[in-house]
Amino acid sequence: MLFYKNVSFSLSPQVARQLLMSHPLSVADGWSGGSESPNSRKRQMFKRAAVLAVSCGALMVGCGTEGGEAQAPSENDEIVANLVEAGFPANDIMVVDGAVYVGRDAHVTLEASREMLQPAPFSLEQYRTTNLVSSTKTKICINPTASFNSYSRLSQGLDLAIANYNGLSLTFKMARGPTTGCSANITATTMSGAGGSAGFPSGGNPYGTINIGTGLQSYSVDVNEHVITHELGHAVGFRHSDYYNRSISCGSGGNEGAAGVGAIHIAGTPTTATVGGSIMNSCFRSTETGEWTSSDRTALNALY
């Protein structure tokens, strides 16, 4: 089994110390008086504890008491806190090169993390985030970089991935750029390794970048089609189909988060994942065909 993105990660000890100094925890912190309700106070205490858990526990950074002036939590600290509150476990949240990822391959911006805390506009019974692309985005243009185009199988895979989406009657069409009439744009660029990464929508727009590993040049065009289709799936709001048990497609790994605010089951799709059961499984095989499964088609038609 192959991961989409396999990286090392850490939060700096400075960030952890700042969190401890900026948000000291005590029993009273969650229950003291004031205008806020006990539930609101408990929520704030939970968010602070969540950030500290990621900073000091799951990501294995130092949390000493070295001197220094307290500073406000960073943008990444808020993203991490929002993700934990949305149901993502701390050990599935990674901070890589200054960016926050979940599920190894999905970048989460501050705006996207805030949207995950908003109530879903409707409850659908594959899995999606609360973040979706607006119906006003009718033409999504995928613009490959020169580096991307220099890899023939990545380039062919992109064309086939676009055809996968355009083969369904969705509220949007995709087009390979450069072209005109785009209501949203996604840049297709390269990264090292044999995998990919993307992110979740925010503000009604798809995530603006998909990163595809140049190592995929040594795989079949079908595998490239599969990976690119998968990353575009994240960009329009899909979570991993086996988010609740990554070992189904990866052979190891745990739960990416409870099916709550950040993982909403889509009507008509299975509640259990199987190997090869969805393009949106966490890990891919060298035998992938790059084509939608029936549950993938159901999921896309339900949302778009």
Structural notes for this entry:
With 304 residues, this protein is α/β, with parallel strands linked by helices. It has 2 domains: 2-118, no CATH class; 128-303, Collagenase (Catalytic Domain) (3-Layer(aba) Sandwich). 33% of the residues lie in helices and 15% in strands. A hairpin with a 2-residue loop joins β2 and β3. α3 packs across α4 (75-85) and α7 crosses α8. 46% of the residues are buried. Mean pLDDT is 75; it is low at 6-70 and 121-125.
Topology:
Elements: E1 2-3, H1 13-22, H2 27-31, H3 38-58, H4 75-85, E2 93-96, E3 99-102, E4 106-107, H5 110-115, E5 127-128, E6 139-144, H6 146-149, H7 152-166, E7 173-176, E8 184-191, E9 196-199, E10 209-213, H8 221-235, H9 247-250, E11 264-265, E12 283-284, H10 294-303
Parallel strand pairs: 4-9, 6-7, 6-8, 8-10
Antiparallel strand pairs: 1-12, 2-3, 3-4, 5-11, 9-10
Helix pairs in contact: 1-3, 3-4, 7-8
Short description:
This protein has 304 residues and is of the alpha/beta class.
Features:
304 residues, alpha/beta, Collagenase (Catalytic Domain), 2 domains, 8-stranded mixed sheet, two-stranded antiparallel ribbon, 10 helices, Protease B, hydrolase, MetalloPept_cat_dom_sf
